[in-house]
Amino acid sequence: MYKILILTDPSRHTATNSLYGLAQTLSQHPKVATLHLASRALAQNAPFFYQMSSQQLQLTEVKADFAFREDQSCFAPSISGQLSDYDFIFLRLPRPLADGFLEWLGQIFPEERIINRPSGVLQTSSKAFLLDIAEHCPPIARIQSLAELEAFKARFPIVLKPLLNYGGQGVLRILDNYVWEGNNKQPYAEWASQQKELDYLGMEYMQRVAEGDKRIVVCNGQIITAALRFPAKDSWMCNVAQGGRAEASQASPEEKAMVAALHPILKEKGILLYGLDTLMGTNGKRLLSELNTLSIGGIAPAGATALNNTIEGLIHYFDSI
Protein backbone atom coordinates (compact mmCIF):
# COMPACT_ATOMS: atom_id res chain seq x y z
CA MET A 1 0.00 0.00 0.00
CA TYR A 2 1.53 3.27 -1.14
CA LYS A 3 1.59 6.70 0.44
CA ILE A 4 1.72 9.25 -2.36
CA LEU A 5 2.19 13.02 -2.41
CA ILE A 6 1.13 15.18 -5.35
CA LEU A 7 2.86 18.55 -5.77
CA THR A 8 0.68 20.99 -7.70
CA ASP A 9 -0.46 24.59 -8.13
CA PRO A 10 -4.16 25.26 -8.83
CA SER A 11 -3.73 28.99 -9.46
CA ARG A 12 -4.60 28.74 -13.17
CA HIS A 13 -6.69 25.57 -13.07
CA THR A 14 -10.00 25.19 -14.84
CA ALA A 15 -12.59 22.45 -14.39
CA THR A 16 -10.99 20.45 -17.23
CA ASN A 17 -7.56 20.26 -15.59
CA SER A 18 -6.44 16.63 -15.42
CA LEU A 19 -5.24 16.86 -11.82
CA TYR A 20 -8.74 16.34 -10.41
CA GLY A 21 -9.54 13.18 -12.36
CA LEU A 22 -6.05 11.78 -11.80
CA ALA A 23 -6.19 12.42 -8.05
CA GLN A 24 -9.65 10.89 -7.70
CA THR A 25 -8.68 7.81 -9.71
CA LEU A 26 -5.38 7.38 -7.88
CA SER A 27 -7.01 7.75 -4.45
CA GLN A 28 -9.44 4.93 -5.24
CA HIS A 29 -6.78 2.46 -6.37
CA PRO A 30 -6.56 -0.56 -4.04
CA LYS A 31 -2.77 -0.19 -3.77
CA VAL A 32 -2.95 3.43 -2.53
CA ALA A 33 -3.25 3.86 1.23
CA THR A 34 -2.80 7.64 1.40
CA LEU A 35 -2.95 10.42 -1.17
CA HIS A 36 -2.14 13.99 -0.16
CA LEU A 37 -1.78 17.20 -2.15
CA ALA A 38 0.62 20.06 -1.50
CA SER A 39 -0.36 23.34 -3.17
CA ARG A 40 2.28 25.84 -4.26
CA ALA A 41 -0.45 28.49 -4.09
CA LEU A 42 -0.60 28.25 -0.28
CA ALA A 43 1.53 30.91 1.39
CA GLN A 44 2.36 28.41 4.15
CA ASN A 45 4.14 26.24 1.58
CA ALA A 46 6.38 29.00 0.20
CA PRO A 47 9.39 27.85 2.28
CA PHE A 48 9.23 24.56 0.38
CA PHE A 49 8.34 25.65 -3.15
CA TYR A 50 10.17 28.98 -3.31
CA GLN A 51 12.78 29.35 -0.57
CA MET A 52 13.66 25.62 -0.55
CA SER A 53 14.38 25.97 3.15
CA SER A 54 11.89 23.48 4.62
CA GLN A 55 10.49 20.04 3.87
CA GLN A 56 7.43 20.68 6.04
CA LEU A 57 4.19 21.10 4.08
CA GLN A 58 0.56 21.98 4.68
CA LEU A 59 -1.46 19.29 2.93
CA THR A 60 -4.89 18.34 1.66
CA GLU A 61 -6.16 14.78 1.88
CA VAL A 62 -7.84 13.57 -1.30
CA LYS A 63 -11.28 12.29 -0.33
CA ALA A 64 -14.31 11.08 -2.27
CA ASP A 65 -15.63 14.63 -2.77
CA PHE A 66 -12.37 16.10 -4.10
CA ALA A 67 -13.18 18.18 -7.18
CA PHE A 68 -12.35 21.47 -8.86
CA ARG A 69 -13.64 24.60 -7.14
CA GLU A 70 -13.16 28.13 -8.43
CA ASP A 71 -12.17 29.40 -4.98
CA GLN A 72 -9.57 26.63 -4.53
CA SER A 73 -11.27 25.63 -1.28
CA CYS A 74 -10.63 21.99 -2.17
CA PHE A 75 -6.96 22.71 -1.36
CA ALA A 76 -7.63 24.01 2.16
CA PRO A 77 -4.96 22.33 4.30
CA SER A 78 -6.18 19.78 6.80
CA ILE A 79 -2.90 18.17 7.90
CA SER A 80 0.83 18.78 7.89
CA GLY A 81 3.59 16.47 6.80
CA GLN A 82 6.98 16.20 5.18
CA LEU A 83 8.50 14.39 2.22
CA SER A 84 9.89 11.52 4.26
CA ASP A 85 6.31 10.47 5.08
CA TYR A 86 5.73 9.30 1.49
CA ASP A 87 6.73 6.45 -0.80
CA PHE A 88 6.34 8.41 -4.06
CA ILE A 89 5.91 11.97 -5.32
CA PHE A 90 3.80 12.79 -8.38
CA LEU A 91 4.71 16.14 -9.96
CA ARG A 92 1.78 18.13 -11.34
CA LEU A 93 3.47 21.53 -11.20
CA PRO A 94 3.02 23.99 -14.06
CA ARG A 95 5.80 26.32 -15.11
CA PRO A 96 7.36 28.57 -14.13
CA LEU A 97 9.22 26.83 -11.31
CA ALA A 98 11.49 28.53 -8.81
CA ASP A 99 15.11 28.47 -9.96
CA GLY A 100 16.83 25.42 -8.54
CA PHE A 101 13.63 23.75 -7.30
CA LEU A 102 13.90 20.57 -9.36
CA GLU A 103 17.58 20.15 -8.51
CA TRP A 104 16.78 20.59 -4.80
CA LEU A 105 13.85 18.18 -4.91
CA GLY A 106 16.04 15.52 -6.50
CA GLN A 107 18.57 15.92 -3.70
CA ILE A 108 16.17 15.64 -0.76
CA PHE A 109 14.00 12.74 -2.01
CA PRO A 110 15.02 9.59 -3.94
CA GLU A 111 14.78 10.60 -7.59
CA GLU A 112 13.56 7.23 -8.81
CA ARG A 113 10.49 7.69 -6.60
CA ILE A 114 9.47 10.98 -8.25
CA ILE A 115 7.29 10.98 -11.37
CA ASN A 116 8.77 12.44 -13.48
CA ARG A 117 12.37 12.31 -12.23
CA PRO A 118 13.61 15.90 -11.69
CA SER A 119 16.95 15.39 -13.44
CA GLY A 120 15.12 13.89 -16.43
CA VAL A 121 12.67 16.80 -16.53
CA LEU A 122 15.56 19.26 -16.48
CA GLN A 123 17.29 17.49 -19.36
CA THR A 124 14.23 16.97 -21.55
CA SER A 125 12.56 20.32 -20.88
CA SER A 126 15.15 22.13 -22.97
CA LYS A 127 14.23 22.26 -26.64
CA ALA A 128 17.87 21.34 -27.27
CA PHE A 129 17.05 17.77 -26.17
CA LEU A 130 15.31 17.28 -29.51
CA LEU A 131 18.77 17.35 -31.11
CA ASP A 132 19.42 14.00 -29.39
CA ILE A 133 16.38 12.47 -31.12
CA ALA A 134 16.57 14.48 -34.33
CA GLU A 135 15.78 11.48 -36.54
CA HIS A 136 12.13 11.84 -35.44
CA CYS A 137 11.96 15.60 -36.07
CA PRO A 138 11.84 18.02 -39.00
CA PRO A 139 15.25 19.49 -39.87
CA ILE A 140 16.49 21.21 -36.69
CA ALA A 141 19.57 23.10 -35.51
CA ARG A 142 20.85 24.94 -32.46
CA ILE A 143 21.00 28.61 -33.41
CA GLN A 144 23.45 30.71 -31.37
CA SER A 145 24.56 33.34 -33.87
CA LEU A 146 23.20 35.37 -36.76
CA ALA A 147 25.56 33.50 -39.09
CA GLU A 148 24.04 30.17 -38.05
CA LEU A 149 20.58 31.66 -38.43
CA GLU A 150 21.32 33.01 -41.92
CA ALA A 151 22.59 29.61 -43.05
CA PHE A 152 19.60 27.75 -41.63
CA LYS A 153 16.88 30.07 -42.90
CA ALA A 154 18.42 30.03 -46.39
CA ARG A 155 17.24 26.41 -46.70
CA PHE A 156 13.51 26.87 -45.98
CA PRO A 157 11.03 28.89 -43.88
CA ILE A 158 11.78 28.27 -40.20
CA VAL A 159 10.53 28.69 -36.66
CA LEU A 160 12.75 29.67 -33.74
CA LYS A 161 11.91 28.31 -30.29
CA PRO A 162 13.47 29.62 -27.07
CA LEU A 163 15.08 26.63 -25.37
CA LEU A 164 12.96 26.84 -22.22
CA ASN A 165 9.69 28.28 -23.50
CA TYR A 166 6.27 26.80 -22.81
CA GLY A 167 2.75 27.38 -24.14
CA GLY A 168 4.09 28.77 -27.41
CA GLN A 169 5.61 31.83 -25.72
CA GLY A 170 8.40 33.54 -27.62
CA VAL A 171 8.17 31.32 -30.72
CA LEU A 172 9.11 33.14 -33.94
CA ARG A 173 8.50 32.31 -37.59
CA ILE A 174 10.84 33.58 -40.30
CA LEU A 175 9.21 33.64 -43.71
CA ASP A 176 9.84 35.80 -46.79
CA ASN A 177 12.36 37.95 -44.89
CA TYR A 178 9.89 38.80 -42.16
CA VAL A 179 9.95 37.70 -38.53
CA TRP A 180 6.53 36.81 -37.15
CA GLU A 181 5.65 36.66 -33.47
CA GLY A 182 2.03 35.58 -33.40
CA ASN A 183 0.34 37.75 -36.03
CA ASN A 184 2.81 40.63 -35.65
CA LYS A 185 5.57 40.89 -38.24
CA GLN A 186 8.83 42.81 -38.47
CA PRO A 187 11.35 43.01 -41.33
CA TYR A 188 14.08 40.44 -40.76
CA ALA A 189 16.91 42.96 -41.17
CA GLU A 190 15.35 45.24 -38.55
CA TRP A 191 14.83 42.35 -36.13
CA ALA A 192 18.36 41.01 -36.68
CA SER A 193 19.90 44.42 -35.98
CA GLN A 194 18.31 44.35 -32.52
CA GLN A 195 19.71 40.95 -31.50
CA LYS A 196 22.70 40.84 -29.18
CA GLU A 197 22.64 37.17 -28.17
CA LEU A 198 20.79 34.26 -29.74
CA ASP A 199 20.01 30.83 -28.34
CA TYR A 200 17.15 29.08 -30.10
CA LEU A 201 16.21 25.74 -31.49
CA GLY A 202 15.63 26.32 -35.17
CA MET A 203 13.18 24.03 -36.97
CA GLU A 204 11.83 23.90 -40.50
CA TYR A 205 8.39 25.51 -40.55
CA MET A 206 5.81 22.84 -41.27
CA GLN A 207 3.68 24.31 -44.06
CA ARG A 208 0.82 21.87 -43.34
CA VAL A 209 0.22 23.28 -39.86
CA ALA A 210 -3.45 23.81 -40.71
CA GLU A 211 -3.83 20.01 -40.52
CA GLY A 212 -3.23 20.27 -36.80
CA ASP A 213 -0.63 19.73 -34.13
CA LYS A 214 -1.28 16.35 -32.51
CA ARG A 215 -0.66 15.88 -28.77
CA ILE A 216 -0.06 12.23 -27.86
CA VAL A 217 -0.01 11.42 -24.14
CA VAL A 218 2.07 8.40 -23.10
CA CYS A 219 2.34 6.70 -19.70
CA ASN A 220 4.89 3.95 -19.10
CA GLY A 221 5.08 3.19 -22.81
CA GLN A 222 1.32 3.05 -23.42
CA ILE A 223 -0.43 5.64 -25.58
CA ILE A 224 -3.16 7.06 -23.34
CA THR A 225 -4.87 9.54 -25.64
CA ALA A 226 -4.32 11.77 -28.65
CA ALA A 227 -5.84 15.09 -29.68
CA LEU A 228 -5.46 17.31 -32.71
CA ARG A 229 -5.03 21.00 -31.97
CA PHE A 230 -5.79 23.47 -34.74
CA PRO A 231 -4.64 27.08 -35.03
CA ALA A 232 -7.06 29.91 -34.44
CA LYS A 233 -8.32 31.76 -37.50
CA ASP A 234 -5.52 33.70 -39.21
CA SER A 235 -2.93 32.18 -36.85
CA TRP A 236 -0.07 29.74 -37.48
CA MET A 237 0.19 28.49 -33.86
CA CYS A 238 -1.80 25.47 -32.68
CA ASN A 239 -1.37 25.92 -28.93
CA VAL A 240 -4.70 26.04 -27.10
CA ALA A 241 -3.02 28.64 -24.87
CA GLN A 242 -2.62 30.75 -28.03
CA GLY A 243 -6.29 30.45 -29.04
CA GLY A 244 -6.28 27.15 -30.90
CA ARG A 245 -8.96 24.47 -30.61
CA ALA A 246 -8.68 20.73 -30.01
CA GLU A 247 -10.53 17.58 -31.03
CA ALA A 248 -10.05 13.88 -30.26
CA SER A 249 -7.75 11.90 -32.54
CA GLN A 250 -5.70 8.71 -32.71
CA ALA A 251 -2.01 7.97 -33.10
CA SER A 252 -0.97 7.00 -36.63
CA PRO A 253 1.26 3.97 -37.33
CA GLU A 254 4.36 6.17 -37.63
CA GLU A 255 3.49 7.91 -34.35
CA LYS A 256 3.14 4.55 -32.62
CA ALA A 257 6.55 3.58 -33.95
CA MET A 258 7.92 6.90 -32.70
CA VAL A 259 6.60 6.20 -29.18
CA ALA A 260 8.10 2.70 -29.25
CA ALA A 261 11.50 4.13 -30.20
CA LEU A 262 11.47 7.04 -27.75
CA HIS A 263 10.04 5.37 -24.66
CA PRO A 264 13.18 3.39 -23.67
CA ILE A 265 15.26 6.56 -23.99
CA LEU A 266 12.87 8.56 -21.83
CA LYS A 267 12.23 5.83 -19.25
CA GLU A 268 15.97 5.55 -18.65
CA LYS A 269 15.86 9.23 -17.65
CA GLY A 270 12.90 8.62 -15.31
CA ILE A 271 10.34 10.14 -17.67
CA LEU A 272 7.22 8.02 -17.33
CA LEU A 273 4.37 10.38 -18.23
CA TYR A 274 4.89 12.69 -21.18
CA GLY A 275 3.35 14.34 -24.20
CA LEU A 276 4.62 14.22 -27.76
CA ASP A 277 3.54 16.88 -30.25
CA THR A 278 3.66 16.06 -33.95
CA LEU A 279 3.09 18.06 -37.14
CA MET A 280 2.41 16.85 -40.66
CA GLY A 281 5.51 16.81 -42.84
CA THR A 282 5.61 17.47 -46.56
CA ASN A 283 5.81 13.71 -47.17
CA GLY A 284 2.45 13.12 -45.46
CA LYS A 285 3.97 11.62 -42.31
CA ARG A 286 3.96 13.23 -38.90
CA LEU A 287 7.18 14.45 -37.30
CA LEU A 288 8.03 15.26 -33.68
CA SER A 289 7.94 18.99 -32.95
CA GLU A 290 7.75 19.12 -29.12
CA LEU A 291 8.32 16.95 -26.06
CA ASN A 292 6.55 17.84 -22.79
CA THR A 293 7.61 16.10 -19.58
CA LEU A 294 6.51 18.22 -16.61
CA SER A 295 2.74 18.57 -16.13
CA ILE A 296 0.91 16.87 -18.98
CA GLY A 297 -2.69 17.83 -19.65
CA GLY A 298 -5.41 16.41 -21.86
CA ILE A 299 -5.91 13.19 -19.88
CA ALA A 300 -9.14 13.88 -18.00
CA PRO A 301 -11.01 15.25 -21.06
CA ALA A 302 -10.31 11.91 -22.77
CA GLY A 303 -12.47 10.12 -20.19
CA ALA A 304 -12.36 7.44 -17.52
CA THR A 305 -10.43 4.90 -19.59
CA ALA A 306 -7.58 7.36 -20.13
CA LEU A 307 -7.50 8.19 -16.41
CA ASN A 308 -7.53 4.53 -15.38
CA ASN A 309 -4.82 3.57 -17.88
CA THR A 310 -2.62 6.42 -16.68
CA ILE A 311 -2.96 5.42 -13.04
CA GLU A 312 -2.34 1.75 -13.85
CA GLY A 313 0.83 2.80 -15.67
CA LEU A 314 2.00 4.70 -12.59
CA ILE A 315 1.16 1.84 -10.21
CA HIS A 316 2.96 -0.65 -12.45
CA TYR A 317 6.04 1.54 -12.22
CA PHE A 318 5.70 1.86 -8.44
CA ASP A 319 5.50 -1.93 -8.18
CA SER A 320 8.76 -2.25 -10.11
CA ILE A 321 10.78 -0.10 -7.70
Automatic annotation (TrEMBL):
Pfam (any one): GSH-S_ATP
All copies of domain ATP-grasp, residue ranges:
127-320
The organism's taxonomy opens as: Bacteria, Pseudomonadati, Bacteroidota, Saprospiria, Saprospirales
Example of a GO MF term: metal ion binding
The species this protein was found in: Saprospira grandis DSM 2844
* InterPro entries cross-referenced by the UniProt entry: ATP-grasp, GSHS_ATP-bd
Keyword Nucleotide-binding present in the record's keywords: the answer is yes
Q: Which UniProt keywords apply?
A: ATP-binding, Nucleotide-binding, Transferase
Name under which the protein is recorded: Glutathione synthase/ribosomal protein S6 modification enzyme (Glutaminyl transferase)
Q: Does the keyword Transmembrane helix apply?
A: no
Q: Which Gene Ontology cellular-component terms appear in the entry?
A: cytoplasm
